[in-house]
Amino acid sequence: MNFNYVSYDMMLDAIYCNLAALPRDLDLVVGLPRSGMIPAYAIGLILNLPVVDLQSFIDNKFVGNGHTRSLRSAIAAPHLARKLLLVDDSCNSGASVDRALIQIADSGYRGLTQTCAAIVTPYSKRLVDFSFLTVSEPRVFQWNLFHHSILSNACLDFDGVLCVDPTDDENDDGENYKRFLLNAAPLHLPTPKVGHIVSARLEKYRGETEDWLSMHGVIYGELHLLDLPNKQERIRTNAHLVHKSEIYKQTNADLFVESNLDQAQHIAANTGLPVFCVDSMQMINSLGNNPGALNRALWRSVYLRSRNVASRYLPKDITAFLKNRFGRTGR
């Protein structure tokens, strides 16, 4: 199964590329906490408008906007906005936006509310007034990956994903390493139960590894470690790459989350399955690229930045195709 992945960069780039779709008579941007505040603040900064979260709007309170420059809309209170833009990061069923619209109406606000979701599906696009990026299911975002139900049938690397990597001094296959295993600083702690944790740690360190997982509240199905006598043997046999690829295939998992880019590319090429790389924050398929549905956003960005040159030098039928394919707004 390939997942359509959206990073922070992809979302922000799509917002920039679709600015012309947004009305310019807005007075206020209202974000839906928590993830909706990311595109809300991006839009507010670009359009130089005040931004509040939904609860602050309902309470008719500003939360402060800094003093580096004057805002384009100088309303004294949120309910004085003549027109506001309600923003969420994504829209699937439209339920979150609908609930927010009811809350806004019940708050006594009498202005005009328009809705926006940064990311929509082909179906949910019609449920909001404005959108920036259309991505089909199944999909996962950079900001929700470690809290997504996808992890229930995923394989997660350990060092560099769940916790920091050991330093050279700590990675001595002895007492320093044992202290590291028990005290490693956490990185990405998953919220749901993880199907499989797949690590190149040696089986003899299972006790310390399980203690760390318990200490940090990580719930998991199986812990797969390397059954080799020492670090030297692991390095000599290059067993870590084979180990991760084989476990991934045997478990029929939907995704592998790996810390190292080279290893992520190797696992993807070896299995033909998607791998998310934490170091580069990208989804890699067996070709080493993001799924094709997301490349459209990148090509769209290239087109919008070079369309004047394209229209001057390319045949009309080609420029017409490019405009139809990449030049439409996300509304």
TrEMBL record:
<dbReference type="InterPro" id="IPR029057">
    <property type="entry name" value="PRTase-like"/>
</dbReference>
<dbReference type="InterPro" id="IPR000836">
    <property type="entry name" value="PRTase_dom"/>
</dbReference>
<keyword id="KW-0808">Transferase</keyword>
<dbReference type="GO" id="GO:0016757">
    <property type="term" value="F:glycosyltransferase activity"/>
</dbReference>
<keyword id="KW-0328">Glycosyltransferase</keyword>
<protein>
    <submittedName>
        <fullName>Putative HAD superfamily protein/hypoxanthine phosphoribosyltransferase</fullName>
    </submittedName>
</protein>
